[in-house]
């Protein structure tokens, strides 16, 4: 039970990113259409499909590493995969934050920071 807080944060991050990646995959066109409008007045307006794909990959890596980290913590108290999952989660969230700030979506950016705090906590606990 020593790692319960860490496991719970890794589960939160895994659910967040795997659900988001699932939505992006299943509703690619809808997401792409909405994001093209969202980023129409930004420097990345012509890179929205690539950016969406990059975020999808980062979310999958983050989610898979967080799940692997939970399993590793439960099986042998190892911290490697969890730490990498937390780090990738932070990187993914920073990418998302930059996009929201570019689009001047400050409420969206604030929401991302709410996820960033537990991700940084997981980095701290697992390092």
Summary of the model, kept short:
The chain crosses the membrane at residues 52-74, 81-102, 108-126. This is Membrane protein YphA (DoxX/SURF4 family). The chain is mainly alpha-helical and 127 residues long.
What would you say this structure looks like, in words?
With 127 residues, the protein is mainly alpha-helical. The protein has one domain. Helices cover 84% and strands 0% of the residues. The protein contains five helices and no strands. The protein has helices spanning 4-26, 28-38, 48-76, 80-102, 106-126. The longest helix has 29 residues, at 48-76.
- Overall body shape: elongated
Mean of residue pLDDT?
A: 97
Q: What fraction, in percent, of the residue positions are helical? A: over 70%
* Count of alpha/pi helices: 5
- Count of discrete structural domains: 1
Q: How many beta-strand elements?
A: 0
Termini gap: 18 Å
Q: What characterizes the major β-sheet?
A: none
The H-and-E topology, N to C, reads as HHHHH
Class by SSE composition: mainly alpha
Low-confidence stretches: none
């Amino acid at each position: 039970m020593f790692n319960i807080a860490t496991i719970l944060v890794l589960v939160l991050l895994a659910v967040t990113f795997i659900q988001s990646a699932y939505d992006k995959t299943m509703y690619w066109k809808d997401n792409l259409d909405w994001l093209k409008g969202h980023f129409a007045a930004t420097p990345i307006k012509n890179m929205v499909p690539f950016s969406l794909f990059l975020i999808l990959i980062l979310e999958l890596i983050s989610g898979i590493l967080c799940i692997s980290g939970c399993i590793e913590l439960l099986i042998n108290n190892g911290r490697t995969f969890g730490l990498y999952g937390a780090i990738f989660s932070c990187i993914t969230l920073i990418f998302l934050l930059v996009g929201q700030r570019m689009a001047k979506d400050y409420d969206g950016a604030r929401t991302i920071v709410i996820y960033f705090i537990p991700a940084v906590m997981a980095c701290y606990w697992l390092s």
